[in-house]
Specification:
The protein has 479 residues and is an alpha/beta fold. It has three domains: 114 residues, Fumarate Reductase Iron-sulfur Protein, Chain B, domain 2 (Orthogonal Bundle), CATH 1.10.1060.10; 172 residues, FAD/NAD(P)-binding domain (3-Layer(bba) Sandwich); 150 residues, FAD/NAD(P)-binding domain (3-Layer(bba) Sandwich). Helices cover 37% and strands 16% of the residues. It is globular. Keywords: 4Fe-4S, Iron, Iron-sulfur, Metal-binding, Oxidoreductase. GO terms for molecular function: 4 iron, 4 sulfur cluster binding; glutamate synthase (NADPH) activity; metal ion binding. This is Glutamate synthase [NADPH] small chain.
Length: 479
Amino acid sequence: MAENKMLKFVSVPRDMPEKRLAAARREDFNEIYAEFARDKAAEQSSRCSQCGVPYCQTHCPLHNNIPDWLRLTAQGRLQEAYEVSQATNTFPEICGRICPQDRLCEGNCVIEQSGHGTVTIGSVEKYITDTAWEEGWVQPIRAARERPESVGIIGAGPGGLAAADYLRRAGVQVTVYDRYDRVGGLMTYGIPGFKLEKEIVDRRTKQFEESGVEFVLNCKVGEDISFDAIRGKHDAVLIATGVYKSRDLPDSDHGGVVRAIDYLTASNRRNFGDDVPEFDSGELNAAGKKVVVIGGGDTAMDCVRTAIRQGAESVKCLYRRDRANMPGSQREVANAEEEGVELVWLSAPKGFDCGANGVEGVHVHKMRLGTPDATGRRMPEKIEGADYVEQADLVIKALGFEPEDLPTLWGVDALEVTRWGTVRAEFGTGATSLDGVFAVGDIVRGASLVVWAIRDGRDSAAAIVQYLDESASAGVAAE
């Protein structure tokens, strides 16, 4: 019986795909994990307990049907496993690579809590989707019925692309506008190749193009085209811009002190073979330098691991809390340490030492953890008299992102924003203060974790289809 293939977590240990040795992976930007073989994927999937209340699914922002596709994989029914996986997720092969499973699905696995080691959910997800591409199961979208309405999407990142996928499946005509010259947003220019190979994004882009999605690239809304022009051209508009304005430090406008997004974009462009003057000049190149990265999220880990691969003399990461309170993936922290990064816990920047050629050091406050804040996390407090200077030739600020002032940039005063500056959007639908204009719900968080952007993009697309249906019904009634 099919059930006999499951519940093997007692006799079968957890086993991740083989990982390249740190000394080898420091030399390039290639993926560090090997692919599961078919038998190994089935074996690891068979460890799933098929529990009645699947916490893995509950803690997945997309509510992926994880136990179902694990069972199908264990049974060797890979095409069905892929179909179940992609039913709730536009990019399962991307989430399988970059989603922080240790803090979401895998971190909440029942057998992990019982001490048997979690199911390797992300690696199986990656395997079944890569297999689907190899076998030709992933095909261009062909809607059952084409609709006359069109939707303009501003932003070709994960939220915008997830919405485009949903809308094309509903037969809606889709045009995606983006300021960059390639599709993918942070998946293309923010995330390094050792976590997400760029051909993975490219093949999805090709699928979208073959599905009838039109991309208008190198197009800045408010400069190359007005927001009103986009509204006038389409029946509805979705704002999926993400956030690219970096949080800053006081008095940090010095040579050698750079933003994480600029640093990572330069590195990715260089790996694409683009001409990058800021990299060639050394401004955004860590080669031979003492590098200090400030921050504790996944972006900080991307920066430190990139600096290692660029040949930095040393790489340190300053974080004001301890390891247990770090917001990023613990798996990424472990990979960084293996590759030679030094994590300096309970340390916060105070200022900078600068010379004629730019930054020379970071003044550091040593911290301790005090009482918890409203979220339950213990607040960092300064330890008086424990300051010191960390030598640095390159300082990278990886402090998270803030929204741009879209109403001002686009000349749309009626577009309401929240007190954080994000577009005010109704939860679950993304509806904004403007009729027919929607937004990817929580674009700040969406920039941090691709999986939330995918969820919000799909939810907003579903609301747009409902809006188009209601508009069409109202038009018929008026006639």
